[in-house]
Amino acid sequence: MPSIHIIATGGTIAAQKNADSMAEFGKVSSDSLLEGLAIPHDCELVIHDISAIDSSLMTFEILLKITHCIHSIFMDKNVLGIIVAHGTDTMEESAYFLSLCYPKNEKRPVIVTGSQRTGSEVGSDAKSNLQHALWAAASEACRGLGTAVLFNQALYMPKYVHKNHTHFLHAFTAQYYGMLGTVDEGNVYIAQEPRIQENFLPSLPFPKTDIYKASLNCTGDVLDFYAKNHYQAVIIEAFGRGNVTEELASNIKKLIDSGCYVIITSDCANGSVKALYDFCGGLGKLIEYGAIPAFDYSAKKARIKMAVLLAAGIAEKEQILSAFKK
C-alpha cells in the first residue's frame, strides 16, 4: 500500500492559542491536523513525532535525528514522499540542512511545510499548507526535486528560500531565483528543478559556528571571542560584493590565523560576492588572508553548509571552496 510519512517537529502548525492568546506548542496532534484532508491515492499516513518545539529551539542534533528518520523511511519502496512539519522561524535553515543530507540516488520528495497561524485562528493556513504538502509529496512531478519548502501553494529550493515577512500568510520567497513550482487543487506544476543534489551525512558532534554581521564603522573586536572559544567557522555577512571595514578586516585576519575558517557572504538579498575592489577591506584582501568566498549563499545557509561539511569530515580548504561553488 502506498504511504506518505509525516515527521512532526512542532511549530505554529501544531500549536494552539491559550486563554492569554499565546501559542502553546505541541497542543495539536498530527492526527487532528490531518482530519478532513484529502488523502492522495488513498495513501496510508504514517506519523513520526520527533519533537514539539518552537523552531527557534531547533538544533543540529534534532536535525540529524530527522535525517536518519528520512533515510530509514525511504528504505520502504512503498513510500511516495515525506512531509516535515516545522515552525517557520528556522524553516529555511532546517530545510537546507535536510537538502544537504538528502539520500544519495533518491528521487522521492521531502516536503517541508508549516504555518503562520495556529489552527485555532481565523484564516489559519495550517490545514491548507499541510493539504498542499500531501499533494506535493504524492506527486510524480515532485520526483527529482529532493527537499523542497512548500508554503502558500508555492514550492521553493531550500538553498534560496527566505522568510520575508513576520506574519503574512505568503511569508516565504526565493528572491531572484523564484519558485520551483506551484500546487493548485491537487495539481503540481514544476517550472524548474535543482541542477545539483548534495548528499552529505554528518555525525555528532557538530562544530561551533556563528555569524557576524558587518555594519558601518564596525570593528569586529568581538571576533576575538570566537578565537578564544575555539570556534571552527565564522560566517561574515559583509557589505555588497564582500567588503568590510579596515578594522574588521584586521580582526578577520587574526581569526583566520587562530585556525578558524572564515566564510564571506553578502548582506544583499541577491547576487554573489566577488573580489573587485583593491583596498584594505576588499574581498580580495580577505581571500589573501585565507577567507573563503561563499558566492551567492546567504549567511544563514553558509553557516548550515559549513556545519554539515565539517561534521561530515570535510575540512580541506579547497574542498570547502569547491562545495560553495555549487
Describe the model.
There is one protein chain. With about 325 residues, this protein is of the alpha/beta class. It folds into 2 domains: about 5-190, L-asparaginase, N-terminal domain (Rossmann fold); about 210-325, 3-Layer(aba) Sandwich (Rossmann fold), CATH 3.40.50. It contains 9 helices and 16 strands. An 8-stranded mixed sheet has the order 4-1-5-6-7-8-11-12, with helices on both faces. A 4-stranded parallel sheet has the order 13-14-15-16, with helices on both faces. It has a two-stranded antiparallel ribbon with strand order 2-3. The model has no long low-confidence stretch (mean pLDDT about 95).
What's this model, at a glance?
The chain has 326 residues and is of the alpha/beta class. It folds into two domains: 188 residues, L-asparaginase, N-terminal domain (Rossmann fold, 3-Layer(aba) Sandwich), CATH 3.40.50; 116 residues, Rossmann fold, CATH 3.40.50.
